[in-house]
Amino acid sequence: MATARLASEDLPMLRGEAAFTADLPQPDGCLHAAFVRSTVAHGELRNVDLREAERAPGVVAVLDAALLDLEPLEYYRATTLGGRMARPLLATERVRFVGEPIAVVLADSPARALDAAELVAVEIDELPAVIDVERAATDDVLLFGDADTNVVRPLDSPTEGGFLSEPSSVDNPAAPPAQPGEDPCAGAHCVVQLTCENDRITSLPIEPCAIVATPFELIRGTPLAEGASPDCELDIWSTGQGVHSAPYLYRRLLGIPVTAVRVREPHVGGGFGGRGDPMPEFFVVARAAQLLERPVRWVQSRQEQFVSMPYGRGQRHRIRMGFDPDGHIIGIDVVMWCDAGAYPHMAPMLTAASYRQSTGLYRVPRLRYRIGSAVTNAPPTGAYRGAGQPEVNAALERAIDAGARELGLDPAELRRRNLLRADEMPFDTGTGITLDSGDPHRALDTAQQLIDVERWQTLAAERRTAGSRSALIGIGYGCYSQSAGSGDDPDYASLELGSDGSVLVTCGSHGHGQGHHSLWAQITSARVGVAEGAVRVNDADSVTSSYGGVTGGSRTATVLGSQIAEAAAELRARICEVAGELLEASPDDVEVTPDGAHVAGVPSRLTSWTDIAAAAPAGISATVTERRAEVTHPYGTHAAVVEVDAETGRVDLVAFAAVDDCGRMLSETSVEGQQHGGAVAGISQALMEAGQWDADGTPRTTTLVDYLIPAAADLPPISTARLGTPTDRNELGTRGIGENGAIAAPPAVQNAVIDALAHLGVTHIDIPVTPQRVWEAVHRQSNA
Description:
By secondary structure, the protein is of the alpha+beta class. It has 19 helices and 31 strands.
């Protein structure tokens, strides 16, 4: 089924013709919101004086928490200690991070709203801030007095409460099953130990957040209201990764029925996990529209995005890995701390995802994985591409490389001694997942071939021998496994035949750059028999589909794609039943074509779509709302070659290969695009990206001048390969691809840089491996 062509929705975006939320026509009487935000990370909120702002030109209203009158926000994934850490939508008694909203100004133009926001006088008694998660866990500086702690999840004890692997099926006499409280590395020939920081990074969508909320009384009877419930009160256009979870939050906070909110999303300029839940500001805007009975629009600035949108990552792994004399892993011992940010949001989900992937693609007889989490005076932590999986994989892959140095083995060879073989699949890792199928050794071999590893190894040795310090070559690998489509939530897929032979696909999830419309048309065409151009897709509307998941977690092709394939097969069967009656033939003998249906082998006996539709006045459709797809596990190896100047710290990425197995491909072009995008996201984190805050909680990276991402000129050509091992866990045999590069690329680049400097005594550099960090690591060894 795989195709090699651009998705149909690509061209409008490339030409600048696509309409994003900020491009939508503004409703009559639309007001514009501007938020007043905290400029300190932690303090008691003493007074908010709105009077001067209320008198400013064009201002209709200025609202603080008391005037807004909304309950605090608790996302369904959050652990808020019985509400004691719930998030006020506008700050009340205390501010907890720079950028936290305190008030909102509603005016007749964006400029006037911003000008008036400067007139709101805010008095804050500043308190000490805490940015480091382990320091926060000491409770020396408390963010929530009522909770009497900063700890969201206490660190598991070495003897109780930790995740300790069950007796393993891995046959290694040096690693008998560990008992509770026993060191999983006990008896190892050698043990390596590292502390791996995974700094906070933002999802940095090309389009910041935006929302337009309109009270429905203003648009009843217009085309905009078609399909809405009679009791609908709010019509919302917004940026997001799914329209179906939002109405439940609006219901809870605004006190209106789920059917009273219609949520739609136009083109969205990237999600990457940061839009998995509606922004808190969205509920403020919706409430303002309710109170003022006027449409309200808010478009986030880039600087606001840096200080208020959830950040991903923010984990620290202290990892110990034990090996036997032959280099086989006998045990892994991990202590992981997750920075939850100022308000607990997704920390429980992220830490669980990290644990599940803590053995990667390796045979690990014994594992102890202890988790702790605490709030800090930084923006809340949310999902970002991979959501918990890149963090643990980076630590795992670094420990493998460190073990290779200690044992005197090539890092690729040590991986081969521990990677699972194809004949060991499916494999129960002991962490709650079973890897379905694949050949990790083939992925590693292919990655080495793509980068021409022997050539680079020879060049690296020549330059070391020559004493070069300005062009040192390093080679690194990042093997990975991922859980794609986690959870058991279904999607919604409904297909309806039109009288002209067209098929309308209505689904619950929508894309934001992944080319979903083309994929759904392709699946429908192949399963039904109509032309791809005859397939239309209706998505991103909470009214037209009864349910849908978020587009995230590499789930959409496996979960929704499989439901569309099943619905398409049902639709074809029903078409054949109707056509069979018209043709006086068995449904099994009917063939469907773009022009209609005919008896197999007799194309002249054709019945038209008009005739078929007329014979079924109630319509011909099929709907699938139950999930059949199970969690899949894409895997692979990425390889990087770098050139490092030890005198200046400069790192140049000179070769990169991405080898991924995402199962059966639906569109080879889309898969390759996702490979490139994921790899660049991971390379960016490895070399440049990091949110930074001073000790007092002041952000230092609030523009693209401070927060760096690569340009095309910073990257070499990326070589790709796709292994395509089908999985039996869904109808299509496919697995995820959107997050793979963000998991594999960071340790590949990081390991390559350390490999280039290993002969100088450098054993570890945290990502991002910036010139400053590289220079400091080299000079520490020079001065040692």
